[in-house]
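Archive transcription. Copying these from loose printouts into the bound notebook so they stop getting lost. Printout 1 of 2:
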Amino acid sequence: MVFGAGNANADVLFVAEAPGAKEDQAGAPLVGATAKLLDELLESIGLRRADVFVSTVLKCHPPGNRDPSPAEIARCTPYLHEQVALVEPRVVCTLGAFPTRLLRGDGAPLGAIHGRPELVTVGRRVVYLLPLFHPAAALYTRPLLDALREDVARLPQLLDRPAPVQPTAEVADDDVGPEAPQGGLF
């Protein structure tokens, strides 16, 4: 299982779709060339990987590298929501169409909304959501790489905004975290 890695008090949390085979082996999200590109993008705005938290919607590599099933998403989303509640980021950057659609709650094409921050509620926390192209896709497509660089360059301005106002409703003790799935993750 790959739960995530990075600064547990980060202002920025990146969310990708699911760990790949290499991430599954490493026990960390975004490794290899994808990690190198993310590191370069962060450095270009004065951040390091150690300054942010990186997670995935699914916590395990889907067999055959297929798209996540609705049942897998339903089982893993509470863990992502709890990560957001624990880390308390101000900004959540979605990497790719899948996490963007999930956290926005709609099917808007990523090409039309990338780089456009908006306020959304993820679990119990209100955050600025910044949809981004996935670094893995940008490695092979120059126009996506250029767009990703431009969109990441907007992150410092977003971090300069006031923190989103959080809901004040009390959370019952039994609603604090996700329940463990029955019969394994998948």
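Printout 2 of 2:
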Amino acid sequence: MESSSSLLGLIAGSSQMPRVVAREARAAGCRVHAVAIHDITDPALEDCVDELHWLQWSDLTGFFALLQEWQSAGITAAIMAGKVEQQRMYERDESGEMEKLIEGLPSGHTDQLLSAVANVLAGAGIDLLPSTRYLGSYMPVAGHVAGRALDDRETLDIEHGWQVAKALGTHDIGQTVVVKEKAVVAVEGMEGTDACIRRAGELAGPGTVVVKVAKPDQDLRFDVPVVGVQTVAAMREAGAGVLAFEAGMTVVFDAAEITALAGDDIALVARADD
């Protein structure tokens, strides 16, 4: 049997994050055994892991069986990476397994569901690691990240949006707030960051400021803020001028592509929480 210290379980959602985590973990000497979800996880993950098992969303019986396989293989640590859209909670399946799980939660917020998964893993003797364990080089420190400099109005909008986003984060309501002239234009709900940005552009026109923060006492095991090319592309589409995100708590992918896309029109800054 392989050394358990070299084995890592990966529970993969959507986006490129599972692929990057897998590649970085393997570069650090791990063998990665992943579980992917049909119609959610990118099939390209197969090229980045040592073993891949596919499940349908809500197949809890299959997930429990897989955990037994992981136990037998000596896996004692796992990472959850990538998104599962919260709307999935409303999908019905014939078995009713997921409905029963959700009904037993204190609320329908994402953190509650993910905490339940973490508890299941713990019951199987598998420690859920921070999703950022292998992503330190993808998390900018405070300062200018890309694009142009801020003006005074944008600086004030960032401050206002930051306070609002942090307050909403205590209730597990999104991670993104869009502001213009110290007025909140849009707040992220289940639709996600990119749709929130586009909605703000429709409501307030160009010049909006996007603020993306970690929740107070953010659990780094899941749902960390992520910025990628699609985020900046949505900003261009909406005419948004600024993206401010939390330094040391936000994962930024495709930095070179983001810088090119931002050009001289969009400012990206990492801000330390006060």
